[in-house]
Specification:
Layout lengths: L1 E6 L5 E7 L2 E8 L5 H16 L8 E7 L3 H18 L3 E5 H6 L8 E9 L2 E10 L2 E4 L4 E3 L1 H11 L3 E4 L1 H5 L1 H4 L5 E3 L9 H13 L18 H10 L2
Parallel strand pairs: 1-4, 4-5, 6-10, 10-11
Antiparallel strand pairs: 1-2, 2-3, 6-7, 7-8, 7-9
Helix pairs in contact: 1-2
Length: about 230
Amino acid sequence: MLILGIDTATMQASCAIGGHEGVLAAAQSAKGRRHAEHLVPAIEFICGQAQIELKELSVIAVDVGPGLFTGLRVGIATAKALAHALAVPMIGVSSLDLLAFPVRFSSRLIVAAVDARRGELYWATYRQVPGGVQRLSEPAVGSPDEVASELLASGEELLMIGDGAVRYADTFEGLPKLEIADRGFAHPSATSLVQLAHARALREEFGPAASIEPLYLRKPDAEINWVTRDRP
């Protein structure tokens, strides 16, 4: 079983191919919001590196957010087009789950935080379990101060990860018993996506392209700006 993973939820886009042998090839690019320009060439590149043709793929996995609206649309649209063309099923995984997965061996409460712009964060909490992490809270959106207050009230030892944690480090570094993970873990990765999707595919937890939708926790910035402009 070969899986193509596509992640475009944040400023860093990535794609990877893998299966039961692990990840065979991966590529990432931090080109801001130019995901549409770089995603398809990156997929072609990793196929060449892994010596795999698109027709050999069994599953398309994609990061469904929360994250940047334009990035999510590019990634999900590309994933759906490939799944339709290849007649293969899809698996959608949250960007917050992808952030938490690489630090799954931590005994601390894991806090995944994606920069939502407009002075807000998308975030959720996780706990180590055998074989991975378990999400303890539903993905939510809030200001850094609101998130910091909730984390302080938990009284637990915390490991915070994601570009949201990095951007608002000044807000969180003063909290007792909290550590912010290295910048190398600041973005979701297609490598983690392939690993998580492979486990789900073995359990046949996939569906048709029509079932995959982006996880939007608020209105798009363009819509918010339009409403604000129309106010008297």
